[in-house]
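FORM 12-B: Structure-to-Sequence Request
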C-alpha cells in the first residue's frame, strides 16, 4: 500500500503549469512539523515536495497561498530524468489525490473549509476527520 497523509503549511504560492497536451499540474512544498523537538528544544519541519494534477492542480493554484495550512492525501512517487548535463536525477514527491483546507476562516484568507478530490468534484470531508461511518454487517468482507 502506498498512502501518504500530510498536514502542513505551504512554503510559497503553488506553481501552476500546463503540459503540452493541456493538462494542469501544480507543484508546491509543504512544511510539516515533526512531532518531537530537537536537542535544543526547537521543533523542526520536513519540507515535502508535492504535485497535483488536473482539477486538483487548478484548485490548489486558485485557493491556496503561501503560509496556509493544507491537509493532503496522496501517494509517494519516485521518478528519474536525465538533466541537461546528462546526469540521471531522482525526484521523490507526493502526488496529491485529495486536498483540504485546515484551520479557521481567518487562517485561510476567509475561504473556510473546502476540499477537492481528484477523482471527482464532490465536497465534504475528504480525509474523513470526525465523520461517523455507517455500515452494516453485509458490507464486511468476512
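FORM 12-B RESPONSE
SEQUENCE OUT:
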Amino acid at each position: 500500500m502506498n498512502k501518504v497523509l500530510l498536514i502542513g503549511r505551504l512554503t510559497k504560492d503553488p506553481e501552476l503549469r500546463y503540459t503540452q497536451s493541456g493538462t494542469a499540474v501544480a507543484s508546491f512544498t509543504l512544511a510539516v512539523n515533526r512531532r518531537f523537538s530537537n536537542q535544543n528544544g526547537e521543533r523542526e519541519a520536513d519540507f515535502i515536495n508535492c504535485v497535483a494534477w488536473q482539477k486538483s492542480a487548478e484548485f490548489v493554484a486558485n485557493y491556496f497561498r503561501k503560509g496556509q495550512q493544507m491537509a493532503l492525501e496522496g501517494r509517494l512517487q519516485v521518478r528519474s530524468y536525465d538533466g541537461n548535463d546528462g546526469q540521471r536525477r531522482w525526484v521523490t514527491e507526493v502526488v496529491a489525490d485529495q486536498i483540504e483546507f485546515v484551520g479557521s476562516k481567518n487562517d485561510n484568507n476567509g475561504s473556510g473549509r473546502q476540499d477537492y478530490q481528484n477523482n471527482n468534484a464532490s465536497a465534504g470531508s475528504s480525509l474523513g476527520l470526525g465523520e461517523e461511518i455507517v455500515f452494516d454487517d453485509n458490507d464486511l468482507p468476512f
